[in-house]
Amino acid sequence: MLYRPIWWSLQIIFRVFFRKIFVSGSENIITDKPVIYAGNHVNAFLDPLILPIQFWKKIYFISRGDIYNTKFKRWLLWQTGQLPMFRQRDGKDNLKRNEETNERCYDLLKKKRGIIIFPEGDCIQEKHIRMLKKGAIRMAFGAVEKHGWDIDVHIQPITNNYTFPSQFRTEIILRCGKPLRLMDYKELYESDEAKAITQLTKDTYEAMRDNYVQLDNLEDQKLFEQLVEIERNSNPEPITPWIVTGHQRFDMEKGITDKINAIRGKDDKRLEELTSMTNSYFKELKKLKLKDSLFKSKRPKLIITLLLALLLLPVFVTGYALNIIQFTVGDWVARKKIRLIHFKNSIRMGIILALNLVLILIASIVISSYSGMWAIAFILYMPFSAWVTVNYKEQISSLLEDNRFKKIAKKSSKAVLKLKVEREKIRKFL
C-alpha cells in the first residue's frame, strides 16, 4: 500500500539529492526469477533504495530487527518492503523470530520476488568489501529445501559505489554483476551442505569484490580519491541525463583501484612516487585556493549559461524560498546531531523528504480551497523548483570559480602552467 507512493517520492527526491546515478551491468539484472541481491553496505537506509528505484517490480530487503519494536512499526516496515533480521546482540528470544522472516523469504522467492540482503552485516564507509556472513546463502538454500530446486534461485552481486557517501549531491555507480545460480551448487550441497554454503559464500564475496571499486589496502584511500577526482574532472558529465547507463564510469574508477592494488606490495617505490606527485599537486592547488575541477576538459559555455540563468532566475528564487528551511534543517541535524557517519546522509534525506511532504500537504489543502488545478500545479512545481535550484546554484558557483581562476591565471601564469603540467604527468603515470 505504501510502497508505490514512496517509490514515486524517491524518484523525485533522488534527482535532487544525488547529482547523478551511473548504472553499470544493467544487462545482468534478474527480475523474472527468484533472486537474492547481495549488496555492500556503506550508507545505512539509502543502500537498499538505489536498486529498487530502477524497476517497477517490488523488491524486498532485509533490515535490522531491533527497529521492529511496535506493532505499528512492523506493519509500516512490511508495507515498505522491509523484513526484520535479528542479531545475537538483540537477545535469544528475538533470534527465534528470524525463522518467521526466513519462511516469508522462502515464499517470496517461490513467487519470483527479489530480496536485497547485505551479507557484510554492519554498515561501514570504506572502499573495501568485508568478509561475508553466511545468512544470505543459507536463506537461498532454505528456499530450495522448502520449495524444490525447480524454483531456480539466483544470487546476484550488487554494489553501490558512492563518490562521497556522507555528502549531499554525491554521485553513485550502481554496479550489477553476473548472477550465481544455486543449481550449480546442487551436487555439492546434496553431498555436503556446510561445504556448499561455505563455497557459495566465498564465490559471492569474490563476485562482489570484482564488481566494486575495491581497495585492498585502505591506506591508499586518500591517493585513490585524489586520482579519481582528476579523472572525473577530465571526463565531465552533463547535467542530463540523470541516470547514465553504461560501463565507462565504473571501468574508469575500477581501473584506478586495480592499478593501485597491482602496485601495492610489488612496486612500492612507484607507489611512493605517485603518492608524492599527487600530494604535491593538491598542496599547490590549496596554496593558490584552486580546485582541480577548474581544469575540467569541458566548461559550460558562458553565454548559454548566463541566458539560462536569467531565464530560470524566477524558478531559482521561488525554489530557494520554498526549500531553504527543509534543506537547512536536514543538513544541520545530519552534521550536528548524528554521530555515526553512515547515518548522516540517510537522516538528511529523510528529514528533507518528510518536511517537503508536510509542506506540500498543508499548502495543497490551503490552495485547493481556492482552486484544485492550482493545488496540483503547486505539487508538481515543488520538486521541479528544488531540482532547478540545486543545479542553478552549482552552475553559478562554477561560473564564479571560472572567473576567479582566470584572474589567478593572469597573476600567477607560471604557477598555473606548472599545475597543468603536473596534472598531466599524474594522468600519464597511471
Secondary structure: helix percent: 55-70%
Shape: globular
- Summed up, the helix count is 16
Number of domains: 3
CATH class of the largest domain: Alpha Beta
Compute the CA-based radius of gyration. Answer: 24 Å
Gap from first CA to last CA? 51 Å
Structural class: alpha/beta
CATH fold name of the largest domain, please? Glycerol-3-phosphate (1)-acyltransferase
> How many E strands?
9
Strand content: 5-15%
Instruction: Please write the string of helix (H) and strand (E) elements.
Output: HEEHEHEHHEHEEEHHHEHHHHHHH
Low-confidence stretches: none
Q: In the CATH classification, which architecture of the largest domain applies?
A: 3-Layer(aba) Sandwich
CATH superfamily of the largest domain: Glycerol-3-phosphate (1)-acyltransferase
